[in-house]
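Usage example:
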Amino acid sequence: MLSRSSQPDDARVPAWRRYVRFWGPRVEADVDDELAFHLEMRIRDYMTLGMSERDARAAATGRLGNLRDARAACHTIGHRRNRRMTRVQTIDALAQDARYAVRTLGRQLGWTSVAILTLALGIGASTAVFSVVNSLVLHPLAYTHADRVVTILRTDAKSHISLSPNSELIEVWQRQSHAFERIEMYSRQDRTMTGVGDAAVIHTTAIDSDFVKFTGIPMLRGRTFLPSETHKPGTRVALISEQLWRDRFGGVDDVIGKSLRLDDKPYTVVGVTRASLQIPMWGDSRTDVWLPLGSDSTYGVNDIARLKPGQSEAAVAKELDSITARSNIELGSVKNFVAQIEHPGDMIGFRSSLYLLSGAVAMLLLVACANVSHLLLARGATREREIAIRVALGAGRGRLIRQLLTESLMLAAIGCVAGILLGLGGVKALLALRPPSLHQLALTHLDARALAVALFVSLMTGIAFGVTAVFQALRRTTADSLRDGAVNGAGGSRHHRLRSFLVVTEMAMSALLLVGAALLVRTVVKLERVDPGFSTANLYSMKIDLPQSRYATNAEITGFVKQVLAQARAIPGVTGAVLAANTPPQTGFMIGALEAEGVPAASGTTPFMAVNTIDSGYFNLLGATLRGVNFDAGSAQRNEIIINEALATKLWPGQDALGKRIRLKPASTKPDGQQWMRIIGVAPNIAVLGLGADHAEPMIYYPPSDNGWVMSALAVRVKAGTDPTTALRAIVPRLDPRLAPPPVRTVQSQLTETISSQQFTMTLLAVFASLAVLLSAIGLYGVISYVVTQRRREIGIRIALGATPRLVARAVVARGLLLSTFGLALGLVASVWATRLIKSSLYGVTGTDPLAYTVAAVLLLTISVLACLVPMRRAMAVDPVIAMRGE
Amino acid sequence: MSDPSIDFLKGTLDLMILKTLSWAPTHGYGIARWIEQCTDDTLQVEEGSLYPALHRLEERGLVAAEWGVTEHNRKAKFYRLTTAGKKHLRTSHDYWARFAGAVTKVLETAPRTA
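Running the assembly step on the lines above writes:
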């Protein structure tokens, strides 16, 4: 039986129901009314048939059956329908907003394109640079758990020179330390590859059988090495890189089982590795062919390890040191080196430049955001009247805000798309501009995370300032705004203050970027002017790498190289050629403590010494004047050496080094038995390390000897206008057809390459600074234009009172300069602090270089004046009569 | 639109509602009364399912509803057939006719003894 209270009856409807109806959906009320009507009609019909009201009601209710269920079913359907309709309505409204936004944005095409371009610039540039930083520094290796992948080095605490531990030590660590999941070893060597296409010198890396598994990067084709194939001399199996597979084997599927020759020995290809399989970056880390470790003679090894989760790096280093101390491995002069855990990204010399560029591009992004805020605020101001009219016509605030927000978001979205496209182009541009030393950059792709951050920042800017603009407009949508020529109220000045603040910020950041760019330009100019210590005009160099298998002894190598030298000298146009172990800007190094006769153990000396072995004609050919005597055929026997000025000054400041004696204690041999060597000549400082800050490093030159460093590099001087490259390269394959033609380059281009990373940084920073300045100028232009428009009447009055156009112009420009000067001052002060962070990227200038600061200031102020010119003209053209009559 | 798997009775009720509304818009009670009158009170509409059925039809867009006033000056919810409803009625009507004919044939045909 149905209770009476559930029967809808107007008299019994509780008062609160009306509120329910008012606020919520009408579903319940509607259903109840409908059912009540039904009952009422049925009762009336029954009563017409002669039933008493009581009986009629009972019969009618009975006929309805289970009323509760029917009601519930109707409620459910009604609610479901309501929800769906709300959804449809929302989507409709959104579509309408979007259409409206597109129309509005389209109507102000100029404004819209500036805003979109600004956003795109900020997003594109920052994403491109962050992508590079990400792929080079933050995630250089695509290994699994890459955050725990480290390289263990041993470092001299005093000189900060780091070396790779030897394989004996690594094995001891692997056995005794519990901090690592695994320590892997690898060994790098260049070899001559023949048998597939032209002979070429390629990079090989020897690895253990579980190295590929360690990286977690699956093979592209075939398999990795078997445990039975490593540490077994004479195993002739190889893995090839994806690149080599495509370049040399045409990417064919049946590459497995094919063979190639390395240094004249046949190897069978058993697998192809993916492009992402790389080793940490020590200079050039590309690998063309992977070989089994220990199958051939192995040069020095490097290590790469994965820490167990939660290991403290300092504690691990300490543990390794104590293991090292307990072991009785002979470590010679590097005994006191300490273990150091490095992340692969830390090993990039270019890192500081990348951080610098990241900072710069972040500032550019902020300037771009500030500028978009400007544009949105400026537009909010111009649309005050439109908004006021729409409010007056009854537009709801919520709807209005939502609609204006849609516009901001639409703008941001288009800007984001443009930004992504620009970012893709930016990464390509970075790759094209990259210094040759950064091969790894080739693997850079647009990073999704970097993109996400940039998009987020710009979207937030769009929303935040879009909303600010709307609220400012709404606050003033009283009748005021509708009245012609309404004078700015408090809201207007607040608005203006916000925009002035934005301009000052932009100017400050631009000043900072300009100072940075100016400092780097100065650095690069200074580096380019570094005296290399010799004449680079028409000087070429060629380095000859001979396979160990056929050229095992110094005598064999020297025999071959001497033939090359003779043929090189016979090339028409060649005026001279000479042999050396290395030609600048390359050098050999020797590890060991230097001992000078009569000088107490020099505390500052590094156990690391640049050395070269040279023929007697070396200095003559390079055009460097030697003090003292040159080497002759008997120099090696008489233990004679030549040192450079830097070493002479360091060991015997204020004295003549000629005739003094020194000796080196190399790391690997016992100190006893080292001969004292007599200094017979002092050479000028030749930039063997390139044009960097270390172009005048201490250095020792050795005469050629049978057991010393073998001379396999050629320096060749030619007549002006002659290019001997082709003729020089042809010599080696002509003498030994199984060898690849060696690389020949001008010494000047190699020297320039040593400062290419600074040039790269400088170029990018200059581009970023210019963009920032341009954006700030647009911002300043916007603010000053706004001021001029707002003060038309005031200007008119002044002109009417006798102010000359010149005075008016001065007032406008002064207003602009006030803002930019304020920003500039802030920026310069910030620069004094910020340039300290980039000290390592500078050469020859200090962080407070007055010239750089002056250039930045003059440039910024000039641009500011230019930005004020158009609004100034407009102010001067104000007709007092029209201006005062009202707009 | 015609779904042969639809519950037989519900389908029948829907069809009768749509047919009723095809004559003229009316309220739920009107629909119930019309069906009763047409069938000389032999088919009493189960009123408990009439309203959920109506609301479902409204949800599907086959009928539209709005509040109006009856000839007795009483507020009531009036239903009318939408275009989609008319189309649905046509197809359901055909389907029903074929279905009823087939059932009738089965019921009226006696087996022929060989």
